[in-house]
Amino acid sequence: MTYEVPDVPGEETEEVAFGFDSRGWPLWEVFVRPKRGLSHAHVGSLHAPDAETAVQNARDSYTRRAEGVSVWVVPSTEIFASDDSESLFEPFADKPYRHPTFYDIPPEVGQL
Amino acid sequence: MQTTAGEIRFQELIDADEKVEPRDWMPDGYRKTLIRQIAQHAHSEVIGMQPEANWITRAPTLQRKMTLIAKVQDEAGHGLYLYSAAETLGISRDEMQQLLHDGKQKYSSIFNYPTLSWADMGTIGWLVDGAAIVNQIALQRTSYGPYARAMVKICKEESFHARQGYSILLALSRGTEEQRAMLQDSIDRWWWPALMMFGPHDSDSANTPQSIEWKIKRVTNDELRQLYIDQTVPQAHYLGCTVPDPDLRFDVDTGHWSIGLIDWDEFWDTVKGNGRLNRERITHKVKAWDDGAWVREAATAYAHKQRTELEKTA
Q1: Confidence of residue A23 (pLDDT cuts 50, 70, 90)
Q2: What pLDDT shows up at residue A20?
Q3: Closest Cβ opposite residue A61 in set B21, B80, B90
Q4: Cβ–Cβ under 8 Å, residues A55 and A73
Q5: Which of A19, A36, B17, B277 is deepest in the core (most CB within 10 A)?
Q6: Please, what's the b/e burial string for B89-122 (b: 16 or more CB within 10 A of its CB; e: otherwise)?
Q7: Does an H or E element contain A27, and which?
Q8: CA proximity to B226, closest of B151, B106, B138
């Protein structure tokens, strides 16, 4: 549920500090292959002390209903992400000619 | 005040019904509101294991016991999805947990009510998880990507929770006079607290307008509550039961069920920490965490040893 708890009038709401450095276990990104023939896809993340435990925890957290046949775990710190604020993908926005539907072909030509 | 490129981009995403993602610029208030809401949601899943775990050893059949264990395990999983979503906003798991243990972040008041009979396992699945489903389906469209994705995963599993609960109640409704009385008593105790789960009336909900504007919340408390009442009252009648509200009536003009007055004093009293089980729930949570310390330490030590040995052979 939202389980959203309303503020009690007159009661102070706890201010949370951002960027708190956890001294806990490293964060792992979890990738699951739903069935043979499909790629592993990102499903979420979890904390674990080592890779083997991360795989065990990923199994319990993300495949309780047989959602997967294989699991990868990758340390989150090893993922190098694109800078989405710089329009890295902008050059492709105005190139519709790279799509098949850009070209009108008469129906008589048949399957093409 | 000057508007920055980040602010403009944020507003564009909200206006276009696109999701905000962790690396996007977002207003401080948006971030704080989300951390608070997602953390409370996560705490609720975790504390929510206690009232049901209370009945695992006393489930009437092996199948019911296996089902209950699976459901409680799901709640732990839901807590994990939500903590992970909150962590993308820059708060750590340890810190959230500490805030819960210190009573500085709350969880849903529904879990401060005791589970007195086996029928309560059915009523919780049907009424409490049922309310959760109504709320969480709406939240699948929330504007923050990681929160919305967690909701999609959770909603897939909640349907099992509601159905196994109703199936417990169906069995009781077809049972002895004593079992039917247990069923009605359970509904009588959980009906109003379940309605309170949707929060104060819109007119008394200070946070709602801003949350709606940011599209964190997509539907208001009263709208969700009405949706829930309309779908739940006929389900109570199907069980041959009533809900404990003398003012309940079906409004032919609107097509909605209309209810009597909610006891908001009880609601606020429980939110403030004076519910029947507030202290017990947190005490138990802290004890479970402390009792598990040796397992975490052993796992950390083992991981360290494995790494050291790997470095030696390298």
Answers
A1: very low
A2: 36
A3: B80
A4: yes
A5: B277
A6: bebbbebbbebbbeeebbbbbbbbbebebbbbbb
A7: strand A27-33
A8: B138
Nearest beta carbon to residue B90 from set A6, A7, A19:
A19
Pair A8, A40: CB distance under 8 Å: no
Q: Which two tokens stand for residue B49?
A: 């294991």
- At B230, the amino acid letter reads D
Q: Are B19 and B144 in contact (CB under 8 A)?
A: yes
CB atoms within 10 A of CB B155: 15
Position A18 confidence tier, pLDDT thresholds 50, 70, 90: very low
Nearest CA in chain B to A58: B77
Q: Which of B39, B42, B41, B13 is nearest to B26 (CA)?
A: B13
Average pLDDT, chain A: 84
Q: How far apart are CA B148 and CA B124, in angstroms?
A: 24
Size (chain B), residues: 314
Domains of chain A: 17-82 (3.10.20.520)
ipTM over 0.85: no
**pLDDT score recorded for residue B232:** 98
Please state the length of chain A: 112
Measured between alpha carbons, how far is B303 from B243 in angstroms, rounded to an integer?
54
Q: pTM, whole model, 2 decimals? A: 0.87
Q: Residue B306 phi/psi, 5° resolution?
A: -60, -45
Q: Is A12 on the interface with B (CB under 8 A)?
A: no
Contacts of B205 in chain A (CB under 8 A): 6
With beta carbons under 8 A apart, name residues in chain B contacting A60.
73, 77
In degrees and rounded to multiples of 5, residue A49 shows phi and psi of -70, -30
First-residue to last-residue Cα distance in chain B: 58
Cβ atoms of residues B136 and B151 within 8 Å: yes
Q: Which residues of chain B have pLDDT under 50?
A: none
Q: What is the distance between the alpha carbons of residues B106 and A4, in angstroms, rounded to a whole number?
A: 9
* Nearest-by-Cβ selection for A16 from B73, B91, B207: B91
| Among B20, B3, B274, B231, residue whose Cα is nearest residue B130 | B231
Calpha distance B65→B68 (Å, rounded): 5
